[in-house]
Amino acid sequence: MFDLGRSVFERRTRRACIELHRRRSRPVGTVVSNSFEFDEPDVVVPGTSGRPGQRTFFLQVIDQSRICSFKVEKQQVAALCEYLEGILTELPRLTGDQIVATPNALEPLGILWVVGRISVAYEEATDRIIIVADELLEFDPDDFDPEFDFEDPEALIAAGLDPSNARFSMTRAQVAAFIAVGNDLVRSGRSQCRLCGHPIDPEGHACPRLN
User: Fold this and answer.
1) 178 near 44, Cβ under 8 Å?
2) FRET pair for 178, CA 20 to 30 Å: which of 26, 67, 91, 118?
3) Per-residue DSSP letters for 19-66?
4) DSSP assignments along 113-163, one per residue
5) How do strand 36-38 and strand 165-171 relate by DSSP bridges?
6) CB of 153 within 8 A of CB of 163?
7) Domain boundaries, the chain
8) What tens digit of pLDDT does each residue of 166-201 get?
């Protein structure tokens, strides 16, 4: 988990940090910093690119003229929305004048990096919800000395294992809109076969129950 400061109250559950192990982003070797901090972003929204069954999920931030997109998995979006809903239920309800229009993500011109761990916190002093996304790095622990300390920040940086990160500071209204868009995207994938429950591809579906 990130230490976001003493003024931040962090909620910790098994969903607070969402790890993605199947995909890898950039290989290690050279320390490259491509981190971002958005204190008052205009829009933070999940989006997809591609047709059902072949969609790429991403998180997109629009901050004035800057647009940044980060690749995520569908399961990460679903888990993040569920967790954010839990946070909002413990905070005062939004009033009508606080609700913002549901945004739509733009087609990304490029993906900056793949997201691994996601941390969530509520900052009471600003009444904002903080999301911090870590870049997912590629490395094989067997390539390191058995005594290498993966908990030592300086050792990690020296070995090129210093991931970039992106910090989003969102209002409760922005979070509510994020949840609405994310849940719609997760539900709008491929339809399921009524017999076997497997997703139906655009090219057709060979249902095992009919064989």
Assistant:
1) yes
2) 26
3) ---S---SBSSS-----EEESS-SEEEEEEESSTTS-EEEEEEEETTE
4) -BEEEEEEEEETTTTEEEEEEEEPPB--GGGS-TT--TT-HHHHHHTT---
5) parallel
6) no
7) 8-188
8) 999 999 999 999 999 999 999 986 566 666 655 555
pLDDT digits (tens, 9 = 90+) for 135-178: 987 777 778 888 888 777 688 778 777 788 999 999 999 999 99
Q: Is the pLDDT of residue 114 over 90?
A: yes
CA dist 205 to 56, 159, 208, Å?
21, 47, 9
Residue 38 · residue 105 · CB < 8 Å: no
Locate tokens 């390191």: which residue? 144
pLDDT of residue 29: 42
CA angle 51, 104, 74 (to 5 degrees): 50
| Closest by CA position to 28, among listed 164, 165, 159, 166 | 159
In the chain, what's the furthest Cα-to-Cα distance? 61
Residue 127, amino acid: D
Angle between helices 74-89 and 172-187 (to 10 degrees): 140
What was the pLDDT predicted at 14? 30
What global pTM score does this model have?
0.72
Environment class of 154 (CB within 10 Å of its CB; exposed 0-12, middle 13-18, buried 19+): exposed
